[in-house]
């Protein structure tokens, strides 16, 4: 038979209401009493009844995390941090792995969550309307959505794009190509903007014949790089919208026998764990994703507190950093 809060109350001589408050973390219960309840609950192998807790508190203690493609190594690294941070706050995680995140209401139908962290936001009016209609706290992580009144945690992607361009220019490259990401994402838009601005400031505007675009995928990087390297005058350096795109570009260069970095310098973006593997040793722009994910959880917890729904949304921007490895060098 399942152990209940009444069993814990009898075990340690407290009222059932005090035990229930202690199990919910109610601040009216002293730390010493909460610890007595916790020890008794552990000793009796008490498992909270989620349905009963929801009826009592109006909360499910579940947070939804929306990502675009869980097979992309960028997302599991974020999800791991989010899962750990939410767990410490007493929340379970429901992962919504969707190729499109512009129908959140439909995705959430039948799922009871207290709030959302969206890692795959899109730049369009329909998505902005979806966010405003959800009726729950939402935090955007990694991407921004224009004219949307929700909390947002991003890195400075414009500065990151400029860092990539400045690094290649400092090495002496002038014929610099780009494999951009999807136009309907703030990350792709802002990274390209930063790159273009830095190149223009040095009198080397981006040659649009050296630009290709696609998804944040290996296929996109592979196809884009193949096309660029087959040009009569190929680029000597390539900026990629993400590390996964850069991995595809490296494979394309290998397929065509183009030595990296001797004949082609490659810069990625994100600094996923694989970027540091010896097989890649990818020069890239690092986003402090663990710090950003932790801050996203903090903002969501703040929004879940009573009386905070009317407060102005916060937008927090983290600085990116250049990580030099073995895929960049001066042009031959």
UniProtKB/TrEMBL annotation:
Protein name: Transcriptional regulator, LacI family
The organism of origin for this protein: Conexibacter woesei (strain DSM 14684 / CCUG 47730 / CIP 108061 / JCM 11494 / NBRC 100937 / ID131577)
Pfam families assigned to the protein according to its UniProt record, in alphabetical order: LacI, Peripla_BP_3
InterPro entries: HTH_LacI, LacI/GalR-like_sensor, Lambda_DNA-bd_dom_sf, Peripla_BP_I
Keywords from the named record: DNA-binding, Transcription, Transcription regulation
Lineage, broadest ranks: Bacteria, Bacillati, Actinomycetota, Thermoleophilia, Solirubrobacterales
Domain annotation HTH lacI-type: ranges: 3-57
Basic and acidic residues bias spans: 323-332
CDD domains named in the record: HTH_LacI (cd01392), PBP1_LacI-like (cd06278)
Region entry Disordered, spans: 306-332
GO molecular function: DNA-binding transcription factor activity; transcription cis-regulatory region binding
